[in-house]
Fold each of these.
Amino acid sequence: MLIGILLCLTVSACSTDLQMKVSGNLNQLSQNQTVAILPIEIANNQQKETALLFRQSLYANLQESNFNLLEPYVIDQLLKENGLTDPAKFSTINPMHLGEILGTDAVIISRLNRVERSYFLIHSSIEMSVSVEMVDTRTGEILWHAEQTESDFQGIAKIPTGIIAAILAPIYFVTNKLNLDRLTSTLVSKLTDLVKNPEELQAKDTFEQTVIASAASGDIEKIKNAEKVRAKFHPFTIDESANFMAEVETDSSETALKELVVTQLEPDSKIEPALPNLSVVPTEPKVASQDKFAVFEVQPVMFDGEDSFDLDALIEKERQDALRITASKKPERKMKTTTRVFKQSTFEIQSSAIQYTIQVGAYKTQRFAQRLFNNLMEKGYNVFIRPFKKEETKMYRVQVEAFEDKTDATLMAKKLRSEENIPNFVTLVN
Amino acid sequence: MRSCGKLFFPIIILALFFGGCAAAKVKVYLPMEENTIFPRTVAILPFTIAEDVKEKDNPPHHIFREVFFNYFSYLGYTDVALVTIDKRLNEYGVTVSPNPQEMDLATLKKALNADAIVMGHILEANNFTGGFHAETVVRAKLVMLDLTTGESIWDVDHTEMAYSGIAAPSVVDIIQEQIENSKVELAYYKSVEMFSMQVMKQIPDPAKLRYGEVQLPTITRIETNIHPNHKLGANDLIQVRLYGQPGLKATFDIGSWRTSINMKEVAPGLYTGSYTIEAGDHIENAFIIGTLKNKDGFASKKFYKSALANVEGGNPVEPKEEMPNVKRKSSFES
């Protein structure tokens, strides 16, 4: 009898199947780092309430961890603003992109795999299965990965205390909503135990090597490749590096003011085709891989303090910047105010013989060009939008990188076709 | 009468069975829909406990306050940290939870810098394990009070009970719950967690009123002196410039390897900072990431994507015995 009860206790207790691995770097997260628990992916709408409860419980439990949590309403709003409303897609988005959107150091992406209640005469059960992944947005590293199934039941195997209990207990167990709450609470408590107490980590709990999230690894590889290409045409010079901070020290206030500007075109102003100037003349504008343009007519934003800072103007400038990145010749525009000359970029492509670029699109609608520009820029490519006129119609070319060797340009074109699935052709910059 | 006698035992079992598990009912006096000026900042005061509560060794009111805070933080209120509340109350000479009837609301509002408070009072707390019987009971009353108007926003009086005994449906449950209930602190934790989970479903959540306030600081761009495929060595500098909204706090990270390196605002909207590579430093393909944080705690991040940091600082220098601990250098460490 006693053996039977013990056996029942062993096999019929609320069961947990938890498979978890964490990275040693999880320990590095401190109160200075912020983590966002993203909305939970669900399989169907019936799981909505449980998903909310799970997220709440995850949030409450992780409040006891070493890191700081971003408030859920902030997360939800920022995701909404960026059109990311489908939790099923979170795992396919580069975590670095999520880091930029949310301003967090890590994100927790979870999925409610199964919430199941079953009843069969004298047996009922509740089962819940989740998968959770915490990814470092700065590196793409998976810091915590867990798959957990938690279940409980009422039935004959628990040795009912009587006939009534044998019949009623399973019904009551499966219909009482609080039992699902309890199961959620138990599940999350076990799930987060090691994250709350990383000092208890053992070797068996940790990844054998650094694991990078698949959504990040592809983009990192692309950036590495782009780096190689850039390194080839822009070799490192000691002078350049030494001058980096000197620029700030000698002309810091001027530089900052120049950054905080907005360009206001007259309504009838025309954007002339802006082509990159391929010859390097120190005082003349050049193609800038990062700074985007060198000379431009600007109107300073007036600010007497933080309160009067024109945020919209700054955002508008960013948008305008994207369109003006290729302005190497001084654009002929009607400006409201005086012309200011931007400081030369440290990151300029300093080749005088760049001739080839890869054209990935030409659009009548600026917005479409901008979309493709943003998409490629996000992936680490040097992208340019070059307006031009075709039969009196203004159009926008989207071009990627610039090479002096046609073979290199062709290689990049192939890469764009194979990796980004973007049809393109190699063309002369001019 | 005989038939009543036959039914008596099952009825008692059923009553016990269902009795202890009623859901909490929160009375909401100030619906959010009717009040756009809803309290934002909320302080959860130290919970109190009735004097006649038997549980002297492990009074659950501290656990309850912490667990409730953890759940309550999920909602769209700005929560004052518990340690901050205690510290501020202490500064006003209040060592136990203040009674709004004794301490006027204006003073309390000023002391806590909050729009509303949550007060909790444990009316009953009991944890008992013995024989076939195990139970943990927590009965508490929680009230959220608007410190501007003095009106209750919501309150709840609920008993959370975990019971196992003669009425439990199975032998396995009886034994299991006996074991679990004997861990007093954990048993209380579970009870107050269930209490909090239930209450949370009914408390007005002002999140949707605050969506408009969510605005991250603007970073226009980030620059560094690192070059593609160039390895930095000992004593080399990683220099970073960040352009964005002026007057905020800027830091930069080198991947997750070196984080929160302070930057200095050298001109309105231009922040600079650097990190000196030390002997022994080593990192491959790390992004330089700039962060700009405003006074509300909102942070923006921008990755420098044109080059990745590669550092090979060589072998670490053996520290000399007399040498004090050398802190990693960051040019603008505060």
Amino acid sequence: MFADILITGLVNGSTYALLAVGFSLIFGVARIVNIAHTAFYMVASYCIYTATYKFGLHPVVGMLIGVVVVTVFGVVTYRIFIAPVREHEAVVLIATIALAMALQEGMLLMFTGDYLSVPHLIPGFTILLGVKVFYQHVLTFAAVVVILGGLHVFLSHTRLGLAIRATAQDREVANLMGMNEGRIATITVGLSLALAAFTGAVIAPLSIVEPFMWLHPLIMMMAAVVLGGLGSMKGSFYAAYILGFAEAIIVFTVPMGAFLKGSVALSVMILVLLVRPEGLFGIAFEEER
Amino acid sequence: MVRYWLRKLLVIFQKEILVLPSRMAVLVFFLLLLGLPLVSDDPYLLRILILTSIFAIFAASWDLLSGFTGQVNFGHALFFGVGAYASAILHKSAHLPPGASIPIGAIAAVLAGLIIGIPCLRLKGTYLALTTLAFPIILMGVVFAFPSITGGELGISGLQRLARSNQANYYIHVIAMLVLCTSMWKITDSKMGIIFHAIREDELAVKAAGINTTRYKLTAFCLSGLFAGIAGGLYAHYMRIAGPSCLEVGLSFQVVIWCIFGGVVTIWGPVGAVFFLFPLLELFRFWPEYRMLMFALVILIFLLYMPEGIFPWIRDKLENDCPRCKVRNHAARKTCRVCAAPMH
Amino acid sequence: MKKAFFMAMACCALIGWSGSVWGADTIKIGVIGPMQFVQGKGHWNGATMAADEINAKGGVAVGGKKMKIELVKADSNEFINVTDATNAMELLCTRDKVDFIVGGFRTEAVLAMQDIAMDSKKIFIGCGAAHPELCTRVAENYDRYKYFFRGTPFNSNFLVKTCFIQMAYVGGVLKQQLGLEKIKVAIVAEKAVWVDPMIAAAEGFIPKMGMEVAGVWRPSPVATDVTAELSAIQSSGAQMVLALFSSSVGIPFARQAGELKIPAAIVGINVEAQKSGFWQATQQMGNYVTTINTYCEGVEYNDLTKPFMDEYIKRYNEPPTYTADTYTAIIYALVPAIEKVGSLDPDKLVAFMETDEHLVPSGKAAYMKDDKGRHLHDLVWGPGYLTALGVQWVDGKQVGIWPYKWKASETAPEITYKGIVPYTIAPWVIEAHKKK
């Protein structure tokens, strides 16, 4: 059972980590709580479904198409609907909610509410530590390591990464230093959405593709981000794994209560926040930024 | 004696209400709502307006908490659901009539407000928003864990309505809405309301001024819970069923959309928004597949042009503040009605 | 804003009013269901097929004159929003002024919609919700709820019974073909209220059949990953899984069980497995999964089944699911009742319908009474009436596997419907358990 918990926790945690880091990126740089983040992940899954099922392409090709489509579409939508109202935080919030609803309805229109699925990138399973693990699960974990490692390298060793980190730390001063803050925000949005699309590609084979698939990951992702501390990518990463393991522990130790895993993970988040209101790695006194 | 009061009423009407388009609009709104059953007895129309009134109370309660004190609550459906389930359980198990189960159910919602208000005291901004999102989800897990009490996914059915006839129901709900929303507005217009405004603007300053913000923040949670709980109880009894759909994330998001669309930090903004958006959604029934999509697009487009909310935007077009005495005047006036200063 | 709103509502009223004037010589039947989903599409397709068939014959003979059927489509959106569903029902009853209503699926919504239809005293034939409460209301408050009849499926108590009989049958096949002494059954049921009594019943029934309960697992109805449960089931040594799912978890369960080649035969109730999209949804891994279903291509209950299925497949390119029994409700229940009674009066129709037995494509429909002798307007279950089928997915197609030489009791005749084939055990199950 310990092996089960370990494997399941790693896989779940990887899923949430991919989503949470993308969300944190947008929040840290552009101060946008992007409720539509997982909705874009849903769009990417549908892209892959269309590519593999309707056009018979290889899943990897479908993945690339999904990433490109979602990134372009997302950046365009951002420029039209969100960028003009960026200063009103409350408005941005519900604009993203409305956007997520619009995407959901769009998918419902195009694909109806039927449950669909996407083939595994690598079919089959293997036995690790006595537990049957799908290759897709291993791929997910590997993908997280590669992508997040790549992101870390990008952010710390390139000029653009430096600009993004600077804007995240202090927007006004970054602007004063000559970095075009609006453009950085757009680039970050694109990057974050590409992450979400990639997540869709990696996780969609493990779940069911339907127009409402974005709601549950949204909750868990936001819980991970809040637990880790808003704006802190390191925090989101660790918190995602904490929540993933919390869920795995519940599923294995209380088999009758497997449906409670969402509630328990959220309770963990609330308990931590009671002790440390800015999350594990967050910054108190954010107004000072 | 009567003539004295009638004349006084007429003076108030002329001097206070007639001068401002926004107040006239509110008066017309009251009259239209109260007078509607006299011209039409279409059950569908009455039903839509009853549901709109219930959701208007709900939306106004969100504004009271999140708009005025700035504690953005993304889990407002919790109060609604607690109110609905509590009044349903009281009605079915303790056999209380709806007139009693709804207020007592609302008290359960107040307790819920206290329970979630306390952990949220130290949280700010987005942390608070996302934490409050978690509460209705946790409660939904509890609802499914005890199906013998809560009916699980089927909910509690077989509840009775407040009144038999459609007209009587309509009047009860509309008058409840008007009374409750007016009380909420009066609360914000009182000393407590000023403190709420202040807490939103700068909590540190309020604390420095010696005011116990904890008490006021908790009061806001409890008041908001009370009104939302009443809305929940009314909903459960009108629909004759209280189910897990009262706790859904979608409902929490809906109320945030209504309030911000209508204009936060007013009470009339969300009420107006619900009266605009809810029937609009029903109207969109003509295009069943595109309904929600059109709804989302309407919201997105309106927000682009009126980020402060639609009703404040309209009001700003119709009225101006006098630069000297800050009293509102309608836009066509050249000089202020109180201090006669020029209006530009 | 408000003026625009009232203008718009006035337009709606005008359209609604003109609609009712134009439809004065037609029988209006409202079809309400989640039209964006398979269940609602089934409702609408079945009803449309019925209406077209009747109208092609000239209409319904009501008293002296012939009246055509006019269908009114109402999207209840019941999966998303129960308020919406009730508003849609209210629209049908008071604005569109329909004469009859068929449809409904999600029990929480149907309970609320039933109240509204009863307010307007309209006959409402429920085609999708199996909860017994819908009909116990009829018995307890006859005068108010008598206008409700259950069209499909039979109620969940009978569902349990059928499910257990199928499980016993498959257990017998396993025992015989694999030479097993005692079958261990793992009960996997989604965490939902409708399932709770079934689990208790199963835990009592399985030992009586000479089998053993290996354990009970309750995944979330919308879980997407059940590998945890599956590995636990494998470790418990179960050779059969009693799966009780009505929500989306049925798909990943079947898919992952197939991918991981769990050595257990899966039987039970899996609503997702009833749909034709199941094969793609499980990436063709849901092989050998068995579930209760009402219709299956190639299986005939009686002479009415084949024409119905052929026509449906011809029109809609897929076999009907049980919600398409709106067809049955209209053609075999409502219309003959109207023609025999000679009027549209709901009270007279109710009095006729509740004692009328008639053949339907899935057997024979009759309405039962409860043990106090009160009318329930619920469907009778049993050989000669309605029994449903057990279907199994074999290489991309649904085949009927039950009733296969089934005797309901010692003295009952043996039943095998036309087109039923023997059960197929999955090759990996045979490999894992066959002795030598």
